[in-house]
C-alpha cells in the first residue's frame, strides 16, 4: 500500500480485532467493564490441570495460542476450494452431525448398561437370577423378573423416545440445503455432504452450516452481520469481516485458491487463530474473520466463505456437552438408609438361616419322614433321597432363599416413583402463573428434574447484580464534562419536539429509544464547538458516538415518512451511550469496517476508522482511532475509572481531574454505572508509529494478542480527560421485598458483581441487602500480607460485635449477633486474587460465616465460582447461584442449584442452569413455596416407601418363624409382585405430587417456615428410626391378630395369606390417608381406588384354577371373623401412631404445624390479632 499520505491512504484500513478482546465470556458485557483481570476459561479444554479461581495465571486458550506460531502438529491445512486435496492426508470430519446416543443395534446393550449403574438394579438382577435356580426357586421364574423388567422397560421407553426426537432433529438438520461452489457455480447441496475446503455462499437470514472463514461479502468493505442466538443465546448483531486480499475475488468467474493454516478444533467460541496464504501473500486470521455453525446472517445480502471445521468438529458441536449432572441431597442421604435396610435385610436372612440350622440339627434324625421336609422318596420300589445337599449347603440355600423372599425390603419402585413425582412437580412449577414473566413472555423452565427437592433446603444464594438484581436496561442519566456536572433537571426528549431527528431523502430518521436530556447541556451541544465549553462537549459526545461497536439498523414504522434507528450491540452500556449521543445531536447513521457516518447537529460527517482496540479484561478500556474530516487523527478512549486515571495526563488540568473524580464518586454513591472518557490527538509521526506497530501486531503469526494489547496501551496514554458518564441500571421490580423475604427465611444472600464498590454498595442499600443497622467491614488490599492482616482484624471485629450483642432480652433468651448487630462484608476482586487458592481461604470463610451479608465487587467469572466453591467445601449447607450472563456460567455450574435469568445478556446462563426464570423476585415463590412443598413431599414419600415395603417384608418374616424356617409363603407370589406395582404405588405418587402441608399464602406470609428444610424436619435419621419402630409394631399386629384368631381353625395358608395381603394394603393406605393434608378427588380416587383394586386383583388371582390358593378368598371372606380381623388390625396398628401424633402436635408443635392450625382458624386469628413466635433461624452453617 502506498504510504506517501498515510492519514489519507489508511482510511480504508479494516480494524484488526484482538483475539483476546471481546472473545472472553465476559469481556464486552456491560458488567465486565468493571471486571477484574482474571481470565475466563469456561470453554477451554484445560485437561487435568486444576482450575485456579483466584490466580492471575488462569490463562485462556486464546491467549496461549497467540503466544506461539501454529506448527504442523498443532494445525490443520485447508486448501481453499479443493476439498479433495484438503482431505487427502487427513480425512476431516464430514458435516453430518449426530446428537442421538443410540442406534438400533446399540440401544439395548447401552441403555441397560447405563441403567445398571444404579446399584439397586444390580441387586434386583442378582435376586432374579438366583430365583431361576431350581434349588432357590421361591417364586415363579417370570414373577420374579417382572418388577425389575417393568422398571427397566419404563425407563427404556422414555430414553428411546428422547433419543428418537434427537435423531429426528439431526435428520432435519443434516438435510438442510446450502449453496456450495462446484465447477465454478454454486449448486444446492445437503449440509451433511459439505466437506472442509469447500466454498459456500450464505444468503440473508440463512443459517451457517459449518465454521467458515469469510472470503467476501456484499458489502464493499467486507463487513457481515451475524446473529449468534443459536450459539450463545445473544440476539444482538455481531460484526465479522472478510480480508481485503479475498474481498474482490468472485468464485464464479475466477479460480479462488489458497491455503488456510488454522488451529485444531477446540471449544473456545470466542477465539480463532489462523493464517491464510493467498496470491503469494500471508495474512493473519482472527475471531472477527470466522462465522460459526448455527449463526444466522443478518442485514447482509450474501457472504462467501470456506469451510474450516465441519460436523462434530465445529465449535457449536464441541460445546454441546450440557451442564454437569447433579444429584439431590435428599437422594444422597436416602442411600445411607438403603445401606441400613440392606444390613437389616442381611440380619433377617441371617436369623432365618441360623434358626434353620438349629432346627435341622435338632431334627436331623427325623428328616427322612418328617412331613413338609421328607428326605426319603418311597414312591419307587427302591428307596431314594430327595434333593438334599447336606447341612452346610442347606443353610446357604436358606440364606439365599431368604434374600429372595425379603427382596422388596429395598424398594425398587421408589426410584421410578421419585422420577414420576419430580415430573409432576416440575409440571406445576412450569404452569405457575406467579413465575410467568410478561415482559419477556417466558415461563419458568425446569431443566433438571433430579434436584427439585433441593430447592427446599437452600442456605446460601450467590447472585449476580447486573441483569439479575437489575434490569440491565441502561439509561443515560448524567455526565461530567470538563469538570462540570450536568446532573440538573431532566426533560424527556419527546417534550423537545420529539427529540433530535434528521432528514434523509425526505424521510425522518429518529432514534428508537427516548432519552431524557439536560436542558443546559443540550443548549451547549447545539451551540457548536466555537466556544470552549462547546468544544469539550463536542469531543465528549463524538467519543460516545464513535468509540463503540454499535451497528445502526433502520427500522420501518407504520408512517412511511418516519424511520427509526435501532442501535444493535453486544453491550447495553454502549447502546445507552450511543442513544444519549443521538439525543444530544450526535446521531450515528452508518458503520462499516472502514468508516462511520455521524450526523452532528444536522451536518452529516464521515469519520474514517483507522483502528479499533476493543475492550479486554486486562486494559478494561477500549479505543478507536479516527481520521477526522479536517485530516487530523484523534484517539478516543473510554473505560473504567480505575484504569483510565492511570493513563490520563495529570500534569495539566488537575482541577478538572479532581472535579471529575468527585463527580464519579457521587454518581457511584447513587448506584450509577460510570465510565471515564478521554482523548488524545495524534501527530503525523505518532500516527505513523502507531500504524506501523498496529499493522505488525494485527498480522503477527505469534503473540498477536499480547502485541495488540501493547500497541493499545501505547496509544492509550497521556490522555486528555473529557469527562465521565453516569448510566442507571434500575432494580427489577420486587427485588428489595424478595431479598428481605429470603433473609427472613434464614437464607444468606451474597452478591458477586463486576461493578465498582460504590455502585455495588448503593445497589445493596436500594435492594435492602444492606441496612443502616449493619456494620460494614471492607477488605480492599493489593498484597497477600495486607489481605491477611485485614482478614485477621475483621475477624476480631466481627467476634467483638458478636460478643457485645450476645445479650439476653426480656424473655431471657440469648440473641445472636445477626439479631442486634448484623455485619456486612464488602471485598473486592483484587483482594480475592490473593485469598482464593491460598491458606487465607479459611480465614475468609471464618469471617464470612460471622456476616449476615457478603458483597463482592470487581470479581471475575472464575472468582465467582471460587467463592461458591469456598462455601461448598467447608459446609454441608445447600448453595444456589443465580445469574443472567455468560460470565455467570461457571458460578451456576459450581453451585448445588443453578438458576438462569432470561435477561438482556443472552441465554448462556439459562442453557447452563438447572432452572430458569424471567425475574429475580420469582426466586421467593420458587424456594419458599415450591421448594418447601417439594422437600416436604419427597421426604415423606421416601420414608413412606421404606415403611410400606418393610411392613410387608416383616409379615413374611414372622410367618417364616412359624413354618420351621422353610421360606414357604402364605401370600400368593403374584400378590407379592403386584404389591409395589399396583396395590400401593399410585397413592404414593399422587400424594407426592399434589399434597400441600401449607397454602401458598401462608408460606409467603411467614418466610420463617422455610427453616423446616434447614432443620431437615421432613427427613432425618430420627424420623427414619421412629418409622422403622412403628413398622415393626404394625407388621406384628398384621401377622399375629389373624394368627391368634384362626389358631384352632382348619383354614389353609392361602386363605390367611389373602387376609394378610388385604390387611397390609388397607393399613398402609390408611396410614398414608392419616398424613394427607390437602384432599381432592384425585387423592381420594388414588387411595380408595388402590384398596378396591387390591380386592379385585386378589379375587381374580384366586379365581385362576392353575394358581395356588384357588378360591381361597371366597372361603375366608364369607365369615364375619375375616372382617372383624381387618377392623381389629387397622385400629390396633394405627392407635399408637395416632396417639403419638396428637401428643407431639399438642405439646411440642413445630412451626409448620402451628401455621397449619392457624390456617384452620384463620378468621379467629385475624380478629384476635394473635402473634405466634417461630423457631429461631440458625445463622451459622452446619459443619
From TrEMBL:
It is a multi-pass membrane protein. Residues 910-1149 form the P-type ATPase C-terminal domain. It catalyses: ATP + H2O + phospholipidSide 1 = ADP + phosphate + phospholipidSide 2. It comes from the Eukaryota. NCBIfam families: ATPase-Plipid, ATPase_P-type. Pfam families: Cation_ATPase, PhoLip_ATPase_C, PhoLip_ATPase_N. Residues 78-145 form the P-type ATPase N-terminal domain. Its main location: membrane. This is Phospholipid-transporting ATPase. Belongs to the cation transport ATPase (P-type) (TC 3.A.3) family. Type IV subfamily. Its EC number is 7.6.2.1. InterPro entries: ATPase_P-typ_cyto_dom_N, ATPase_P-typ_P_site, ATPase_P-typ_TM_dom_sf, ATPase_P-typ_transduc_dom_A_sf, HAD-like_sf, HAD_sf, P-type_ATPase_IV, P-type_ATPase_N. It is found in: Membrane. Keywords: ATP-binding, Magnesium, Membrane, Metal-binding, Nucleotide-binding, Translocase, Transmembrane, Transmembrane helix. The chain crosses the membrane at residues 116-133, 139-157, 336-360, 395-416, 946-971, 977-994, 1023-1047, 1059-1079, 1091-1114, 1120-1140.
